[in-house]
Amino acid sequence: MPVVLDFERPIHELEQKINELKKFAAEKGIDLTNEISVLENRAREVRESIYGHLTSWQKVQIARHPERPNTYDYINYLFTDFVELHGDRFFGDDPAVVGGIGRFRGRPITVIGHLKGKDTKENIARNFGMAHPEGYRKGMRLMAQAEKFGRPVICFIDTPGAYPGIGAEERGQFEAIARSIMTMATLKTPIISVVIGEGGSGGAIAFGVSDRILMLEFTIYSVISPEGYASILYKDASRAKEAADEIKITASDLFELGIIDRVVPEPPGGAHRDPEAAAKNLGEALAEALDEVLKVPVDQLVPYRYQKFRAMGSEFIKEGPVL
Amino acid sequence: MVLDFLRKQKYITVQPGQEINGARGAVESVWVKCERCGELIFNRDLERNLKVCPKCGFHFRLSAPERIAQVADEGSFTEMDGGLLPVNPFCLADYDDRLARACRSTGLNEAVVCGECTVEGLPAVLVVMDARFMMASMGTVVGEKITRAAEAALERRKPLIIFSASGGARMQEGMLSLMQLPKTVSAVSKLGQAGILYISVLTDPTTGGVSASFAALGDIIIAEPGALIGFAGPRVIEQTIRQKLPEGFQRAEFLKQHGFIDLIVARPQLKETLALLLDLHLRKEA
User: Counting CB atoms within 10 angstroms of each CB, which of A18, A136, A161, B211 has the fewest?
Assistant: First the structure.
C-alpha cells in the first residue's frame, strides 16, 4: 500500500478511478478511451493545482515521505561504477552515512550522503539517517581522499539531524560536526551539496559547506525541526505548521534568502511519484553546477567558499551605539 | 542585621520575565545560595572568590564584563564591534521584545563581547560569550562578531582566546543562524593555517551549534570544572532514549576522560594558565 498524504488524497482517488476504468475496459473489451482521458486531464489539473500551491508544512511532509528516493536511489540513477567505501578508521562504520567513489557522466566523483531506510526494518538499521560521530568522520576521510586524488565531492543531505544519544555524545559528536565543517571549508577540491529530503540542523551542515548548495523543490533545510521550534518557542509542538512558515525552511524560501544556490524542480506530485524523473532533473542540475565549480582554479576554491559563507546574513546586521 | 536582609528577601516576588532593577537587583547583591551545595554565601565573598563557591568549589556563571575583568589585565581591554545589532530577519512577533529585554537586563547589545587586551602583559584578542543574553545563542551578529574577532587576530597576528557559553544556534534567525557555523569555523581555520594560536575555553553551558563549530576547534581546549559541554542537550537525549542519564554525563570531567578537552582549569588558576600558554607560543626563547 502506498503512503498517501492527506492533501494528496484527491489525486490518489482520481488515479484509482482511472486504473479501475482501464482494468474494466480491458476485461470487458469496451472502448473507454474518452472517459479515461477526461479523468486523466482532470487528475493532471488537480495535481498541478495542489502541487502549485503547497504550504510549507505540506512540503515538510513530502520531504519526509517514506517513499522518497534516498541517497542510494540517486547514486543508482546518476552514477556508474560506484564502489562503496566503509569505516572511519577510528571506531566503526556508520550505516546512517554512505560514501564511495563512482563516475558521474564519466568523471570520477567522491559521493557522501546520509542514508534513510526504505522501511521500518532498514530505518532501524540505518538509525533513520541520523549519523553518529563515525558517520561524519567517515565523510571527512573520504573528502580528504577526494582532495588527494583531485576528485570533486558531491554530498547528499537527507537527515532529521544528529542523533541525540549517549554513544554519540561520548564519542564527541560536537567535535565531529565541527571538524567536518572545517574539513569542507578548507578542502582544495570542488564540493557540491544537495538536499534531497530533510536537512536537519548540525547533522546536515556537517555535509553542507560547499561551493554550490542545491535543494530539490519539496525539501527542507532548517536549524531545528518545525516541531522542535514550536515546542520551544510556542511551548506547543502541535503548532509545527505555523513554525514551518515562520522560520523559512523550504527550498524557495532559502533561495530567496541567498542561502542556497539553486532549486531543482521535482516531477509533478514530488520525487516519490517519479524517482527517475527526479533523478534526471537532479542529474542536469548537478552537471551544470559541476561545470561551474570546475572552472574555478583549485587554489581559489577555499577563498571563494570563505567569502560565500562570510556574506550570508550580512544584510541582517545593523550598526548602533556601543552600550 | 543579617535577619533583616533575609526577611526583606521574602517580601519580594519576582514574576518570570520581570527584571529586577537592571543588571543587579538590590536583594540579590547581598546573599547568594550556591546552586550545588546550598551554602548561603555573602555576595562580596563570592565575588572576591571569583564567583566560585568557597565551600564546594561550584563555578557560578560569569557575565562577559565579569569574565573580562578576571582575565584581562586591568584597563587593557578595548572593545571591538560593540555597536553591531541584530535585526529580526523573519519579523517574528516577539523576537524584538526578547532582544530589547536581553539588552536592558545585561547592558549589552548582543550575546558576545569582543576586544583586544593583554593577559599578564601578553597580547590577545579576547571573545567572551554571555549566557544572560538569550542563553548566548548564536545568530547572525554573534557569528559576525566572532568572525571579525578571528579576522582581527589574523591581521594583527595576535593569539585568539574565546570563552564559549551558549545554548546553541539562535532559533529565531532560522537558517541564518545555522550558517554561522561554517562562517565562524572558516574564520578560526585561517588562524590555524597562519600559525596563530587559538585557545578555546568552554564554560557552562557550551552546547549545540557553538560546541559544534569554533568552540570545538581550539589548538588548546580548556574547560571550567563542572561545565556542561555537548551537542545535544541532556533533556533531548533523555526524551530520545527514554532513560535517565548517568551522573556527570556531558560535564567537563566526562569530556576530558573521553579525550575531547586538554585541560580543566579552576577559575583561580585560569588567568595564569592562559598567560603561560600564551607565553609558550609567543616567546620562542626563554
Answer: A18
